[in-house]
Amino acid sequence: YSSRDTVCDDCNESIERGGVLLIPxxxxxxxxxLLYALRHLKDQKIIPNIPIYIDSPxxxxxxxxxxxxxxxxxxxxxxxxxxxxxxLLPDNLHVHRSVNESKQLNNVRENAxxxxxxxMVTGGRILHHMFNxxxxxxxxxLFIGYQAFGTRGRTIREGQPSVKIHGQEVPVKxxxxxxxxxxxxxxxxxxxxxxxxxxxxxxxVFLVHGEDESVEKLxxxxxxxxxxxxxxxxxxxxxx
Length: 240
Fold this sequence. Notes:
six-stranded parallel beta sheet, 9 helices, two-stranded antiparallel sheet
């Protein structure tokens, strides 16, 4: 609910600024969580019924798969479905599958939400929208997922004055906001609980994903909890 509240604040702030709220989101999982939150916010009239555009063929396809397979929904979503509601389809939702439909969003300049992939702005149609929306101070970019070191998303989130897109330096004049509550990654405690589920504790654990500081802390926690060997491989390291 805190994430929904933050989305609400950012959405309403974007409307006050008079621009577009641009959200880079991973096509699988993150986009659907966001649509679920937006559906609730619109139903409760916490945010206005402004148009929401999904401009990612994969996100559109995955959302359709979620909608069709109600047997995989949680209890709250099933209850909504029984009443004839669609948990992932907020009112005034528009999907843009073709390239021409995507380009039409260049003409959307105010009171709208555009959701596109990739989530870290490393490729996909979001690059096209960033190129056009970042230089406009009335717009807002909202990150709802982790931005890895070296990605364009990380560059923008860290407040750099410009970012290279399509070979050009694009000025970042739009407001930049971020929410961490939509993260799908397990935290340290959850990973330790997961390791405890093993019938036999692994003799060796390799940590290959995460920020350096976080990985080092997890290494210490695993070694302390299980007294097992923990390795953080370096590039080109090999193990048998």
